[in-house]
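Morning!

This is the sequence you dropped in the shared folder:
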Amino acid sequence: MSSFRHSLHSLPRPFWVLVGATFVNRFGVFVIPFLTIFMTRKGFSAADASWAIAAYSVGAFFAAGVGGWLADRMGRNVTMALSSLGGAACMMVFSQAESLEALVIISALTGFVSEAGNPAANALVQDLVPAEHRVAAYAVLRFAVNLGWAIGPACAGFLMEKSFFWLFAGDAATSAFFGVVAWRFLPRGRVVEKARSGWSHALVSIRKNREFLALFAASVAMSMVFRQTSTTYTLHFERSGLAMHWCGLVLALNGVMICLLEMPLTAFTRRLPVRSAIALGYAGMGLSHLVLLGSHSLAAFTLLMVLFTVGEMLAFSRQQAYAAGLSPEEMRGRYSGFLSFAWSIGNITGVMVGLRAYALNPSLVWWGCGVLGVVAAGLLLRKKSEASQRHDDTAARKTI
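The structure's back. Tokens below.
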């Protein structure tokens, strides 16, 4: 733990500003986890809801490309500010939509604008933090994200029972706060000259990077699994006859566990090779859904979330540091954006396939999540190149 404390003392002030603003922003992610419920309570079917949720992911897909390019060309803070302030405006418009067509269109626009800042935030961490301190930096950032997630959904669950409008208003307010902080207090970061800022240069590099492509494919599978927590999981919770404020509290358990346990778990498993730890986490996240086979109890939903979170803690902080190590310095925004493509593809597929499979038989969803977790783990455990093996060994020594 002494090396982790040393890393904390080495993190620069702008990084801590980013951490604080991220906490506020993530606390206010009220709408997306409950969008399925919002749609079904308006009288739409689960299949109708899947179109609006998938539209958000479609918007996020295109945002990854635009946001990654803007981060490298215009700067990290400008990209994050434009994304957050624009996302706040979109969220308020979203709250007033009534027809399915309007909900789908505005959802796509909201996803495009709101998610365009993610590659810039990830690239800024890489700009600010040396490689030897990145595992600690991503762990701290995940702590902030999940502390917000631990508190936010619990509040959202109670607000939802009174009025959905306050979910949209709170989401918009916290996004606007992040945008102002990014604009005024965060650095521009590394900027690439126009001639080398296009996607063609990055795609040539990515095409040759086999380890990054394997991570990309695994991320597609895991994003399909992860999306179920805000779609079929919440829908199954409601249709099991359980009060929705319990759903908010169980979702918040994910953030509470990460805040309290991720650091000790990472320290305890520090000798595991990086890819092995990520693969073990992926498998655990997917297989945790098998708990819901034949069970509708609050205990089953809680156990799933506990097992899912343990897998997430094993995988995600290491995954972020590993991906950062695979990204060339002058292409950090575009590499981050390209990896965001994977999550967008998985989100879109996960929503469309997941809710339709749920309508046929919920067990299809839970079995599917298990299979996807195992597939993602297999992609990470495939034979490594010598360069990748050296990276794993180095990263394992640097992990807390």
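Headline: The chain has 18 helices and no strands.

More detail when I'm at my desk.
O.
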